[in-house]
# Entry
Amino acid sequence: MEVSNLETIPGRQVSEYIGLVSGSTVRAKHIGRDLMAGLKNIVGGELKGYSELLQESRKEAMDRMVKQAEKLGANAILNVRFSTSSVAQGAAELYVYGTAVRIN
Amino acid sequence: MEQLIIAGVLLIVGYGFGNYLETRHYKYIRLREKRLINKPSVNLRSAPLENKEVISSELAIGSTVVSVDYFKRFLAGLRLVFGGRLTSYESLLDRARREALLRMKESVKNADIYLNVRIETSSISKGRNEKSVGSIEAVAYSTAVKFKEVS
# Structure
């Protein structure tokens, strides 16, 4: 599965457009991470717990999108976009969407 | 009185460690930026691809969550009274974006160019109480393209 945020895959030709595919996940962090983040809030700097959490979630959202595209018989996803929104304190939704296509 | 002392200690700790960590982070960012300077990242859709054969393309993602320190949050609180530039938050956003960009580049190391770079910023720990505001997430993503060696 080729994934790209361009409208084409460089050097390849699109043969068929299949449609929009998307994946999303809502994740909350656990208390340990929250505590560390609270401490980090005093000295500033990167909140590693949060960073990892969001990276994992984004990966999961992408996996879901790819699975959906596979089901539809696509072999590439174009023009992929990410969006993040915080639903509640300590929980975030990661959403990713793109166009599933078949390429030569 | 006790609360004042605690706040004072937090301010000093925040100022000291915050400054130290920020300087160190900036140093690290600059070092890596120098190392990756020959790999351009552009937000054009089609790059100078003429006469070059593409071998592979891949999605590159980098993200980071950065928080502001207690002292800067205090300063920002003062600023909200008088208005003007929030310098302390400017550096926070700058750090987060540059770090995200670097991580994006590092996630696909053997690429020659990064096309269609998008940077997104979102404040993730916005709570009911004002104190929890101050950590932001920056995501950078792009399509990493590798060219065939030109003979």
Notes: Chain A has a mean pLDDT of 85. Helices of chain A lie at 31-43, 48-71.
